[in-house]
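Run log, item B.
One chain of 664 residues. Sequence copied directly from the ordering sheet:
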Amino acid sequence: MGFVGLWFLFFPVQRIFNSYLSTNFNFSKLIMSGLIVSTLQLLSILGLGLGVLYFFKLSRRVTNVELILLAFPLGLGLNGWLLFLLGFFGQLNIISSLFFMAVGLSGFVFLCPRPQLVFRQNLNSFSYLLFGLLSYIFVIDLIEAITPPGDGDTLAYHFAFPKMLVEQNGLVFLPRAIDGAVPLLIQITYVPLLLLGGEVALTGWMFLTGWALIFITFFVALRYLSINWCLILTTILASTPIIVGVSGSGQVETRMSVFVLGACLAAILAIRNDSPSFFIVVGLLAGFLAGSKYYGLFFVLAIGVTIFLSRSWIKNGFIYVVFVMVAGFQWYLWNWTNTGDPFFPILYEFLGLKNTEFWSYSHNLERQKFTKYELPVNANLLWYLFYPFRATIYGLPQFDSERLGLGLYPLLILPFAIYGAFLGRKKLVTSELSVFAIVSFTFYSLWFFSETSQRVRHLLPILPLILICFTSVSCRVICTKKEFRSVFYGIALIVFFQLGIQSVASIKSFRYLFSGESREEYLLRTVNWYEPVKWMNKNLSKSDHVLSEMRWYSYILKPRHYYGHSHYQAQVNLLPNKIDFPLFVDQLKTLKITHVISWPSLDPKRSSRPLNFYLKSLSERGCIIPLKKFSFKYKASRTFWFNKNPDLVNTVLYRINLSNCLTT
């Protein structure tokens, strides 16, 4: 069995090696290959984090394991913070990326502590079984790491944004609500990977940071649980649907979870030592959360509540606030200088901002209507208590929990956790786990009652905290009372059920690996409406500028792409109730749009979408020239490649010609 496992680990690497051989292989290509670059980036980030901890003289006040657990999230956040400065000065290039990587690697070489023996308990056959299950998950994730990206959000902006920065060698303001003018600290860390290692480095980095979360969760849990319980917990976490669906993509929630775990561990150490230096680390990590996503601000408040557990909470609170602002201010200042709203476009009405080319009052009203779709349940006390159960057992479409659920383990273990908490209620207040509980409870409360999007993946950053708390407290009951031992059968069923789901989800990656598909063939099979992209990449130049409503085109299209969302951007007015043809033409000229592709439909000429209406008007005036018509079917699943609708839909690519046409 060991030889089989080694072969599965070796085969993906061998396939990459062979692909280099088939394309005029040379040694420099192998050195700069994606997986090597992403691994070097991991070590470099550890070096940066170690440098911060040594600078604040914390290296001798923690164990070697704690040093590594704090170094990675610190280094990851610092990397994004420094890259923002490079981008601001237009210096995002290969030379600067190599320089920062070299600095981080130097820190790792000179500051990395010697490894310690952390498994002080004897491993048994059950331990090796769990290690085997984790190895199986590791292999599946590794195979996914060499598969081209296909997730919609990843293609739309998580990978598209760093691609744009690479093309411009610096920061670019993207005036689009929700996914454009937002905190992007994590996405900017993808830039050096794309510069030095290409797409495989990006997907490899998703793999490594996803397993960094598993690694950190294991060693944090080891403070409170036996090694076998830690292995059970991490096996469940690694195979939970929300981790399987998000961790390997460009989504930021997995990376944010690393910040959350690091901040909670730092808070525990800070409260125990009442040390300002530790609270600096807590503030930095909380600030990095604020720089990663708007709802990271909820974590700033949630983690801040734990400061009241320290003796010198006034002084420590001041330190915390200062370093939160230092670490998290960049993207809010960037938005404010470009739009006048640091939380664009949330404060548009409150600040009384005027209409600009980026935003208008009409777009703000439509955005507010559109975002209500993301709130299928009312933000009241009943749904506050019931939401986790509904999202897990039978979620609504807006929860996106059918494929990205939290798993059944928290529900299974909840009754035992409640009973265990009751039995140990006198120790709960002074327990380190109270920090995890406070952060989880406060964040969930702020998130739910703030009426932001109710997608369940936003809870991923607190999932490891909840699993550690529930498992640690319930273990007191399950391990001491024989009548509760049968719960292990339920845990085993959940583990194998999740592994089965993960295995099915990996079919597309295994097919790509073993069939010898090219990247083009894989994307054609798994990405919706890829046929126009394939044609445009071959027949248009990089100087062309394509307007479309297909958001996932942003990364996979080689020519420049402008994503014309109907409600979240105003540079191309596509509001359904605000048809203005002269304005539309002026906006095409301003953005230097050279091509437009219609939204696929059974009959584009009869489509009610504003863009297709404008195209019809442009055609009648002789302002566009049809270049290519495409017909294809909608793919309902990237795994099973079946079609949701058997009917062919059609789209047409047009070339803009405004020189001799009537636009009034």
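Observations after the first pass:
- The chain has 30 helices and five strands.
- Residues 135-339+375-505 form one domain.
Flagged for discussion on Thursday.
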